[in-house]
Amino acid sequence: MAVRACGLIIYRRLQPAPSSKVTDGIEYLLLQTSYGTHHWTPPKGHVDPGEDDLQTAFRETREEAGLQASQLTLVEGYRKELHYPVRGKPKTVIYWLAEVKDCNTEIKLSEEHQAFQWLKLEDACKFAEYEDMQATLKEAHQFLCSKE
2, 10, 37, 44: which sits with the fewest CB atoms below 10 Å from its CB? Predict the structure, then answer.
């Protein structure tokens, strides 16, 4: 059976310069793991018994980044499912998109992560080494741009 994990792609909007597009002010939150290869990823984790996928995404975000559900706005209509092998076993990861209501909200990392960064799309894609994560960030960004 596939391992199942869920998370949130979290973004914030900075005040755009008058001449720029609104989407230029979007930054994505990535966390750097304190284990393994120290890769960068949005907050995510395994589904606990009795939890639904979205509950998992919010719980993991609270545990890993210190963000409460009340501090976030879930973006309607976006859900991305990734499938890839981990140590020879299939893994499914589901992401939703959520905006931080206050762009100055403090991030409080758990022991699972050693650093975080707010990054514009191009830099977020450089930090997220995996192609499927890069594609997911770009797709999320396009989704936000299409809603402007």
Answer: 37
